[in-house]
Amino acid sequence: MLSWIIRDPADSFIKFLYPVFSLILASFVPIVYKSWIPLRRLEVILISIISAMVLSRLFWHFHFSGSISDQMLMLIAGHYWAVGMTIVGGFVMLGHKKGLVAGGTVIFVSLIVAASGMSGPLVSGEVSLEHAVYIVRVHLFLGLLLGLTSAATTIRDKYRDALIRTDLLEEMAQTDMLTGIANRRCAENFLSQQIYLTERYGRKLSIITADVDHFKDVNDNHGHAIGDKVLIGVANTLKSYARESDMVSRWGGEEFLIIAPEIGVTEAQKMAERFKETIAMSSFSGVKVTVSMGVTEFKKGESMDSILMRADDLLYRAKVTGRNATVSG
Fold this sequence. Notes:
Layout: H1 2-5, H2 12-26, H3 28-34, H4 39-63, H5 72-94, H6 96-124, H7 129-174, H8 184-201, E1 205-212, H9 215-222, H10 224-241, E2 247-252, E3 255-261, H11 265-281, E4 291-297, H12 304-320, E5 326-328
Parallel strand pairs: 4-5
Antiparallel strand pairs: 1-3, 1-4, 2-3
């Protein structure tokens, strides 16, 4: 737009073609906003239009805009800079492989445009050999830019892929593969951290152990596939009704552990009752189940094993008193 405002009146390219390219690019604003075209496809279209605009401008300078010698400063300082930015933009928008192809194509077309525009004037003496060599050097620098950008994006992509793999491995190491909630290892780490914070800052901390009643009968009567769906349903219910600060984990088999920071046993008891009643009223793949729960609060100075053992003893008491029960202590 700035080029169009301050254009030379004799520059027909900017006068007539720049508005056309600007309107084409502006038409993509609603397309991007409404997501009418997939992003990857849109990026290819945009880089193609920008490349066409930059290379068309180069073609204009070499073939229709007067003496090439008089335009060397504009070509070097302005338009070949735009070619370089287009090459880098191709890597940013298209990724390494497609960016390399796009950048190589842009340089090749640019070289053809320059060669076709300078060959005649070079023979006739209108363009000096020094200028021709300078244009060749510019294209060599563009090739160097292509190589450096390619190397940089290769390193970037490898680093990104390594981070993704690391994140996936970390998530797999801390996630129960069946239910998608935290696994025992993750829960132990979280509980250890919360005990440390509780001891240091004098906060409250409670845990709830939950066990699906008669789960063996579910597997025996309905099969292990249905049993798995029941566990997934129970896990999702616990996750849905827990607070954002709580951790819901699968402790092992049909047993779950809920770690509830900053609440005492009274509030944790109410939470456990809500879990128990919701599960009892639910049906998972046509199977209704109940849960028994043990609820306890961390006591200053005790170990993680101690609080877990107490919660397990309370869960056992809930089982022996008839199941579908919550016992706290």
